[in-house]
Description:
This protein is mostly helical.
Amino acid sequence: MMYGQGGMGLPRPGDVPRQAGKGGPRMNWLRKQEWPWWQAGLLLGLLNMVAFYTANYYLSVSTTFSRAAGMVVGVVAPAHVAANAYWKMVKPIVDWQFMLVIGIPIGAYLAARLSQRVITFSTKLPELWVNRFGTSAGRRWVLGLLGGILVGFGARFADG
């Protein structure tokens, strides 16, 4: 028997035992409702080490967005892309990192489907947010975009 969300395979109070699903007991680890943070982090770190060892390059995604921008601009202004110093150094091509970025939402979708968990979305704002910023949708958009720009800038600045 397996338990729903117990860390390290151990049951939590209130967990209900469930039977092995399709694919037998060997595939049950794929159907976990949630993975403990340390397992997911450990596997991601190991994947990064394998990527660095085999490709001599670490996992990163921000360069892919720069390459995608180069591809989009190349459709409209190919001469600009050809003359741009950055895109001469970082060619706007589809490489393994580009495929990784495409695979992230696909993997997230598959993980959500395999977990067989119903995910509900809520428009309720956290109390801390409301106390600090209010309930304005416009303010949320502006701060969300500003935060995304800062994270993207930081990632590019750190070469990752």
